[in-house]
Amino acid sequence: MSTETAKKPSVLFVCVHNAGRSQMAAAFLTTLARGAIEVRSAGSAPADKVNPAAVEAMAELGIDMSAEIPKVLTTEAVKESDVVITMGCGDTCPIFPGKRYEDWELEDPAGHGVESVRPIRDDIKARIEDLIASLVPAAK
Q1: Cα–Cα distance between 6 and 4 in angstroms, integer?
Q2: With a threshold of 0.70, does the pTM exceed it?
Q3: Tens digit of each residue's pLDDT (9 = 90 or more) over 43-92
Q4: What residues are labeled active site?
């Protein structure tokens, strides 16, 4: 069938440090889309490691991000993605025609404990569910 050979949509999440928001978004999309969407994340100035409070907040929902490593944003990653979702990276994200761009205004969880990260996590999850609905037709 043609749906089997169709290219999977791809999404790139970008934030400054690639240590909190974009990592949580990528983990949710990877988990909730069950392989139907290609997922990337990157940062304009990547941190040394993923935010431990973000890792803990996601673990509470059964999603393990402990092995993730912040990655640097590349032009290639943007070119290879159908949807680019920025989270406070300002003008550092390259713009290419034909891409869908969204800017999600989310509080930066850097320096916050897990109690402060939970509402950000929950906001991201709701946005991811809407994103999946917009990219993957409902299975009948």
Answers
A1: 6
A2: yes
A3: 989 999 999 999 999 999 999 999 999 999 999 999 999 999 999 766 66
A4: 15, 89, 93
